[in-house]
Amino acid sequence: MEEKKKIPFWEESYKNDDISAFGANPNPEVKEFIDIFDKNGKVLEAGCGEAKNAFYLIENGFRNVSAFDLSDNAIKKVHKIAEKRKIHINAFVQDLCRYQWDNNFDLVISYGTLHFVKSEEWHKFIFDAKEHTNSGGFHVIQIFTDKVPASEDIKEFAVGLSKEGELLTLYQDWKIIDHKEFILEDEHAGVPKHYHAINKIVARKK
Ligand SMILES: C[S@@+](CC[C@H](N)C(=O)[O-])C[C@H]1O[C@@H](n2cnc3c(N)ncnc32)[C@H](O)[C@@H]1O
Question: Which part of the chain is the Tellurite resistance methyltransferase TehB-like domain (predicted)?
């Protein structure tokens, strides 16, 4: 008998207009470093979910912001939010493993997404993203590591957990603006208290 494919918990939240799957506020580094990012530059958010970072940047004067996610439900919701707030956003359904880098960017953001594809796939994504970033441009990346095992809610999908410190190695030729490694205690509907090991980096191309 064919096994039923498990659907990640965030898909239900993406279908519900009344809740934000991961909160409506931007991630802290996007807020903290907004003033050093170029408002006229090209921005790409990969695995954007409800695009809270992309919306925050647009609402703060960034003119050229693109965001993509594998989830059709997420992108439908992003378009609805944009329409409601009368905001233009270039949001589209896209698998990061198959992204075609036709343009260069000045800021590439990805939070909580890369570990959902195999290690070699997200390494390639970072390699290509670095190649297609203008000098002086930034990357803001957050990934889960294998310092603690993947929690029940994501273990089926987290096929590419990073090694601790791997991001630092991948950006050794860039200027490291910020770097954090920590364990987050998390709890949400239907999932008891659990932990995620997190590495984050804000890096600037020389
Ligand atoms: C934990 S959510 C984080 C969403 C958003 N970055 C945030 O912080 O609110 C992970 C997101 O990665 C997306 N995702 C998973 N695999 C992907 C892939 N191969 N390409 C693009 N997005 C992917 C999921 O659809 C989901 O929206």
Answer: 28-182
Q: How many CB atoms lie within 10 A of CB 187?
A: 8
Mutate to test the pocket of ligand 1, among 57, 92, 113, 119 (most ligand atoms within 8 A of CB): 113
Residue 144 beta carbon below 6 angstroms from any ligand 1 atom: no
Determine, yes or no, domain membership for 10.
Answer: no
Q: Which residue in the block uniquely carries the two structure tokens 């408002």? A: 39
* Number of domains making up the chain: 1
- What is the three-class DSSP state of 187? strand
> Mean pLDDT, the chain, as a whole number?
95
**CA separation, residue 111 to residues 40, 52, 139, 192, 200 (Å):** 22, 11, 11, 22, 9
Does residue 50 sit within a domain? Answer: yes
Q: Is residue 155 assigned to a domain?
A: yes
CATH number of the domain bearing residue 143? 3.40.50.150
Which residue has the CA at smallest separation from atom 7 of ligand 1? Answer: 49
Domain containing residue 81: 25-204
- How many Å lie between the centroid of ligand 1 and the Cα of residue 34? 22
Does the C-beta of 53 come closer than 6 Å to ligand 1? no
The pLDDT tens digits for 58-114 are 999 999 999 999 999 999 999 999 999 999 999 999 999 999 999 999 999 999 999
